[in-house]
Amino acid sequence: MKLRYFIPAFIALVGAMMVSCSDEDTVTLLDEIQVSRSYVPINLEGGEATIDVNAKADWSFDESDIPEWLTVTPMEGKAGETKVKFSAPAANNGRNADLKIECAGRTQNIKIIQGLPMVQDATCADVIAGPDSKTYRVTGTVTRIENTVYGNWWLVDETGEIYIYGTLDKNGKTKNFASLGLEEGDVVTVQGPKTTYGTKVELVDVTVLKITKSLLKVESIDPEDATIPLEGGDVTVSLNCKGYGVSVEIPESAKSWLAMTSITSGVNPIVTFHANANAGGDRSAVVTFKTSNGSQESAVTATINQKGAIVACSVAEFLAAEEDATQYRLTGVIQKVTKASSGDFVLRDWSGEVAIYHMGAQGEFESLGLKEGDIITVVGNRGSYNGTPQMSKGGQYETHIPVTDVTIAEFLTKPDDQNVYYRITGQITDIDNPTYGNLTLSDDDADVYVYGCYPGWGATGDNRKNWLTTAGIEIEDQLTVIGYKTTFNGKIELYGGIYFSHSKSEY
Questions:
Q1: What is the pTM of this model?
Q2: Looking at the predicted structure, is the pLDDT value of residue 188 above 80?
Q3: Which CATH number goes with the domain that contains 253?
Q4: Domain of 154: which CATH number?
Q5: 81 strand-pairing partners
Q6: What is d(CA 436, CA 305) in angstroms, rounded to the nearest whole number?
Q7: Do 84 and 39 lie in a common domain?
Q8: Mind listing the pLDDT tens digit for each residue in 293-329?
Q9: In 3-state terms, the chain is what percent helix, strand and coil (to 5)?
Q10: Both 397 and 484 in a single domain?
Q11: Predicted confidence band at 35 (pLDDT cuts at 50, 70, 90)?
Q12: What does R_g of the chain's alpha carbons equal in angstroms?
């Protein structure tokens, strides 16, 4: 079931509600909170409207729901009756907003409607530049169908690309995309409201107004996953063409590694692509096939992949990388576990930290006994969520080093072993080498010498130097570090301390 959006299905019905609502209409949906109107109209020329809120406890609006064009006064209130005013400036086109009032654990929905939305013909560029909630009518080519139940796919025209999140069937129903018979390459006209999810511009639950079937279709790809091995090789794409010949376009960024080596003619042309051995990471390219019959042009695409070496890098290098098929290997400390059952956590090394999203299969993180403080190596793609870089779903566990929490007194009793790591916390009582972070940690029962405190896993060379000063860590601060036990000239040491966290002294 789709839960991300609530989109009104019938604008006419909304208009009828706007006409019928009055100050005397009372909507009683919840015991905790009541509002005099749940549909609130504002004139297109600008203006304001007022409702009564009657609550049995403190209440407040969810600020994240309120668009820039709408002013709500007040945003919160106490138990009892409060008048709430909504105001908006003049608008060129109709718009609306879905607001929520939270009260005693319950939610009251309110819909603000300014005028009636006018559906306009638009290009993809117009949609991208336009406001959310506005309804657009767009014509473009179907590409990359990602969900054949709800109908999630990409629409492209000469000005850009937008995502279609949900496609209604001929009866206005969801989850029946297959009944429309839409295929990649078809030219369609769709209509729906815009929203922005993170950085992705979407039209939601669109209605398909017109379909022009493509003159071109991808019949098969060999191999089926369209993947060339690391050592190099070929991929062949078999097409069905109703136009006058086929042209092939390889993206400029892929021409250095991917080439078309042959193409046959006829109704079922076969196109062969070749790539030499790959010394870098995984890579891919979306190639485009085009044809025309003189009055209509059609285009379809195919994604050609090539396996590559896994790129070992720091977190900072991973964050700076492009979002593509390249596989990266990251090693660092599990700084925070956000959801163990799904394998969601934050990994930190000397250069920074990054979220790891859905590592491995469901429950794998827990079955491996992974926890905060462990040193882990993972492999996956660079992705993002709402513009923030992360390792995308599908990242794989490779190995880890368990880290045991102990007191300083317990640490002193452990055997020397450079393969066994511990995490300790204490107060810094002395720093005898600020360049490399050689210091003494103490707690209530004992103290230990830390031979080197570095900014995180993987720091080498100059990246290890003067880090305590840079981080503002001083004597009397509380410090948590990870390392293994050694003994040098009879002196017990925690060797190669990996910084985990610290807090300033209260004195």
A1: 0.55
A2: yes
A3: 2.60.40.10
A4: 2.40.50.200
A5: 54
A6: 45
A7: yes
A8: 999 999 999 999 999 889 999 999 999 999 988 899 9
A9: 10, 50, 40
A10: no
A11: very high
A12: 30
- Per-residue confidence band for 24, with pLDDT thresholds at 50, 70 and 90: very low
Q: What is the DSSP letter of 232?
A: -
pLDDT in tens, 407-458: 999 999 999 999 999 999 999 999 999 999 999 999 988 999 999 999 999 9
Counting DSSP H helices and E strands in the chain, the numbers are: 6, 37
Residue with tokens 């390792």: 391
Phi and psi at residue 84, to the nearest 5°: -115, 130
Query: Is the residue at 148 inside a domain?
Result: yes
Burial level of 153, CB count in 10 A (0-12/13-18/19+)?
buried
Tokens of 126: 């117009």
CA dihedral 279, 285, 196, 158 (to 10 degrees): 140
Q: What are phi and psi of 317, to 5 degrees?
A: -65, -35
Instruction: Provide mean pLDDT across the span 196-217.
Output: 93
Alpha carbons 408 and 405: distance in angstroms, whole number: 10
pLDDT digits (tens, 9 = 90+) for 166-183: 999 999 999 999 999 999
* Rounded-to-integer distance, Cα 195 and Cα 218, Å: 31
Can you give the pLDDT at residue 1?
Answer: 40
User: Rounded to the nearest 5°, which phi and psi values hold at 341?
Assistant: -65, -30
Could you tell me which of 399, 416, 411 has the C-alpha nearest to residue 480? 411
Beta strands in 104-224 (DSSP E): 106-114, 120-122, 135-147, 152-157, 160-167, 187-197, 200-212, 216-222
Which token pair is 302?
């195919």
Contact call for residues 159 and 124 (beta carbons, < 8 A): yes
Amino acid, res. 242: K
Residue whose tokens read 């001929």:
170
- Return the closest-CA partner of residue 376 out of 345, 344, 401: 401
Q: How many domains does the chain have?
A: 5
Domain assignment present for 4? no
Q: Are residues 370 and 425 in the same domain?
A: no
